[in-house]
Amino acid sequence: MNVSPPAGPGPCNDPFSEAQLKTLKYAPAFPANFGSLADARAFCETFFSYYKREHRHSGIALHTPASVHFGTAGQVRQQRQATLYAAYNAHPERFRHRRPEPPKLPAAAWIQPAQQGGPHPEQLDADCLKPLDTFRHAEHHVHHPVTPGSGRGVQEATAETTER
Q1: Which of 39, 55, 81, 131 is 20 to 30 A off residue 141, Cα-Cα?
Q2: Which residue spans within 1-82 are E strands per DSSP?
Q3: What are the distances in angstroms from CA 164 to CA 4, 144, 146, 151?
């Protein structure tokens, strides 16, 4: 099964979505095609689990998102610092001019930062969620094909589907 973007007026121009898709597509294990939707979902489940729990992100001082989220990043940094100090003490000639330090965690890290002057995601009102809810509602309306000889017309099948 070849997964392609939906037909529309043009390509997605959201740089954050494009970056996330690029991260996924450039993963070494990303296949050229998936055999089925179930295969694609299984791959994504495994990939995102790895990406959150094992992959070290440069934007959060080479920690995993799980480590930062669960508060263990400080302990991990202390262990890294002890390892770097031991390496420096054993072979200071391998380091230029000073003792190495592990990178510090930033005060805040964002996947998609709030826009200047725009509402913070936690301050959004219900009206902005209406388009999303409308989209989700439309997804749940599945039109069942009418099979020949079923005795049902297209209008009857459509009416039954929209009543659900």
Answers
A1: 39
A2: none
A3: 29, 12, 17, 20
Question: What does pTM read for this prediction?
Answer: 0.55
CA 124 to chain centre: 21
The reply to whether 38 falls in a domain is: yes
Distance (Å, whole) CA 70 – CA 92: 34
Report the run of H or E that residue 33 belongs to, with start and end: none
Answer with the residue of higher pLDDT: 33 or 13: 33
Highest mean pLDDT among 8-12, 15-19, 138-142: 15-19
pLDDT, tens digit, for every residue of 44-103? 999 999 999 999 999 999 999 999 999 999 999 999 999 999 999 999 999 988 899 999
Task: Give how many domains the chain has, as a whole number.
Answer: 1
> Alpha-carbon distance 132 to 110, whole Å?
22
Residue 57's closest CA among 111, 5, 136?
A: 111
